[in-house]
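Lecture notes, structural biology module. Today: joint structure prediction for complexes of two components.
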Amino acid sequence: MALSAANKEIIEKAIKAIHERVFYAQYPEHPKAYGEEAPGKGLEAYNNQLGKQFTGLLQQNPVEWTGEEVSPYTNKPLGITYPVFDVDTLIVRAGRAFGEWKKVSADDRAEVLVDALERIKNRFFEIAYATHHTTGQSFVMSFQASGPHASDRALEALAMGYEELNRFPASVTWEKPMGKASVVLQKQFKAIPKGIGLVIGCSTFPTWNSVPGLFATLITGNTAIVKPHPKSVYAIAIVVAEIQAALKAKGYDPNVCQLAVDSSNKLITKQLAEHPLVKLIDYTGGSAFGSYVESLPGKVTFTEKAGVNSVILDSVADLKPVVQNLSFAVSLYSGQMCTAPQNFFIPAGGVKQGDTVIPYEEVKKALVDAIAGIAGHPQMGPGTLGAIQSEITLKRVNSMKELDVNILLEPKPVANAEFPEARTCSPVVLEVDAHDVGVYENELFGPIVLIVKTKDTAQSVEIAKHMAEKHGAITFSAYTTDEATANMITEELESVFAPVSLNLTGMIWVNQHATFSDFHVTGGNPAGNASFTNPEYVNKRFVWVGHRRVA
Amino acid sequence: MALSAANKEIIEKAIKAIHERVFYAQYPEHPKAYGEEAPGKGLEAYNNQLGKQFTGLLQQNPVEWTGEEVSPYTNKPLGITYPVFDVDTLIVRAGRAFGEWKKVSADDRAEVLVDALERIKNRFFEIAYATHHTTGQSFVMSFQASGPHASDRALEALAMGYEELNRFPASVTWEKPMGKASVVLQKQFKAIPKGIGLVIGCSTFPTWNSVPGLFATLITGNTAIVKPHPKSVYAIAIVVAEIQAALKAKGYDPNVCQLAVDSSNKLITKQLAEHPLVKLIDYTGGSAFGSYVESLPGKVTFTEKAGVNSVILDSVADLKPVVQNLSFAVSLYSGQMCTAPQNFFIPAGGVKQGDTVIPYEEVKKALVDAIAGIAGHPQMGPGTLGAIQSEITLKRVNSMKELDVNILLEPKPVANAEFPEARTCSPVVLEVDAHDVGVYENELFGPIVLIVKTKDTAQSVEIAKHMAEKHGAITFSAYTTDEATANMITEELESVFAPVSLNLTGMIWVNQHATFSDFHVTGGNPAGNASFTNPEYVNKRFVWVGHRRVA
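The predicted structure, tokenised, for the full assembly:
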């Protein structure tokens, strides 16, 4: 076997994009790029799967079948069940597959994994429906995030891994001159994989957040056990099924990549994570469990936990496009993105706009009006906000009303003509003062926006920096027309490893991290210890070992 | 400022060597390469330093002066004292220097550090005498290990860091087509250093083991505090002094790299290591303290601890060159190298040599005789074995006689005509059985050799693998003329991340790891969590942060 010319080209283009960091997409984000028939076929596949066993996996002899997914749009169970396996079975199969997979060349692994991505591409629309009806994302976001964007991130990790695996020669003749004679050694350099990797998924981005770690683990020769969130299995089950099909097509053990479904009342995550043969753990989710994962001895972990993302308003060329941009950023998928802004720091003295100053109260009102405008818009509202994935998020939003703070915008249901039963909620906007640290210092996951009144921009920066350092930040957004202020903000925030998005307006939002260009999470603050996809993200999954023998 | 053409060429050649992994040395290991006058000048400098304050550092206002180095050759104190600083002073100065150094470009940092290496080169002979009279290494080894070999390792880390820092563009224009229009962002990619790095040295290899971490930390924009072993300060003090001189020459704060000398009765290592502003720790030394370092929360650590290095004898073309090679490997610097073999696994059935089998007893005798031969040789003995650095090591060797095991070779002083007062000790060779795990499972630092009688080679491999997995291994050596056995050994040992040296005879020994070619420690087993120099070794010292703004 070998790496086919077509697949090699896909990887080489990805490596080039990673190095150049210009815009690149192997998988176009526009649904129309996939042909006229694709959407219909995807819907048909989705409808055919509802209420049935998911039989696409190549894992034999399940002990039972389980499933508890409920659509946030219809409020009805999907009725899909997935095969369940004992932890011991999963580990034994992963260990056995590892014995084979670790010996497979980087080229041959890459061939399988690029094939898998091409297979996954054919199921983007089914994945989109699966994501839509488990996460509550709008259909377009479901398509883009779980389809092309996720596959581009997977390819990015795969390509980075491929590059690193080929960084040193497989063998060299080493000759050291020693006067008249010389010493000659034959040397081999091998990238030895660590063992079994566990990939722990989340309920809101079941593929996007899981496939980078999964493909990084697999390309570097480890085997993988994918443990999805029990409420959001379907989309990643398709991904695992296609990886297994690609493995099988090349004659490899499909257990190189297994799906480990559990149920809310019998979670197996800790049992898997603590197993001594599990050497790598990729995790996306809440901070408490993430910190537990990071603390496990003898594991290499890659975490994305919660962050407190801040926006600083200092000065603007024109306030209107700014509040439009920001209101969209907080409304998109009802703030259920790890990249969504939460705390808006506005100076009590207002925000400069050219030669004038817009008073604090006006800035606040403009922002609140813009947020209310999106939620209340009959077409734009439901398409932007989608639905709320979990009842807990909805409760959190409503509990905000019980805080002793000023509520600027009450949360309410978002009318959705297509899905009248949808669990929806418009953003709640609260106003607090800089000293109300207890309110704004935690990630308040969901459509919750806090406007924090500060003394001035210097205080805004000081607090935002402290939040990033202490609680983590995945994104950070600032608006200033003053270059010195821009530099000051950038220096302060980068010192706590938070990336700065400056003056974003128009069709680009702070929530979005472009594959092949933007690092997602820096790994340097408490929001997570890993980054999609820097070299460390793949290097830590294997060990360079050099052998030598007398020639 | 910028990177000069000459220094850029030095870095580029090093990067090329790292990638090709063929033989390369920027600093020739032969003393004659440094000119006729260099040895005499080095000795003069050494003699002038004895009994005086070491005034070469650019660190102001010490609280006191201290020094406790004693030559293992003369048994007399060197009488050199070094400036002592409070931990708070060291941290404050390192923090202040960090504010400046982190903003310096990779090119400008590289310019300073290559300059420093060129300055250090001019002091190789003084460093050699300093090493000789603190570690007990022979003069030639002192010269090579602390001089050219250490500087090559420093350059390797520097070059690897330089390559990684330049891996992504500093800025790009990112343009995403959006139908008729497009979104354009200006992006910046910055490698943000972590903060203050602590480098904890050891008594036996004061520069070789410390400069890779030191140069890796500095090139990536962190500042460094070098905490040497109080019994082995002089050599690394020269290195730090020259780095400070190079910093000052370019107008930078010399406190970018500080020396933190302490004394045995008032160690400051833990105070430094636990300081919240210390983010990176490089450590070489015993396993207990190394595991403490690794366990510190919030630190990125790079450790080289102890390992149990094994030799497996299965079959040989000719036993004589094999035992010659091995006896030299255990005698070199009296087994005080972290790479020295300790446990020799020999099958009870003997070792094949061509069509015959050499009985176990004969193999054992050949090995013991060869070891005794080196120690007893009037010229070769002292030059190979050098002296014993620490009284503790000598006690350990002698305590071996109290074990209830067969002593094949008694330790005794090694006659040294030049230094009659030298603390010397020839290797003790013990014979144990495979089931005497309690005896051979620990690193017995110093000239201690264990011959372990096994059932067969399969058992030898099983035990050696288990030792590497449980207790770590930095080197591993095997002799077999059977290709299938060679492959089996390689597969088993690489699975626990131990590098295999096969059939070494002649002028190459398992103890030696060549810069630019051999990884020193893999980082994958308990012998240490880092490797000189893989990409991870530099990547973990900084964080990629990407900023973006609307163009």
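Point to remember: The mean pLDDT of chain B is 97.
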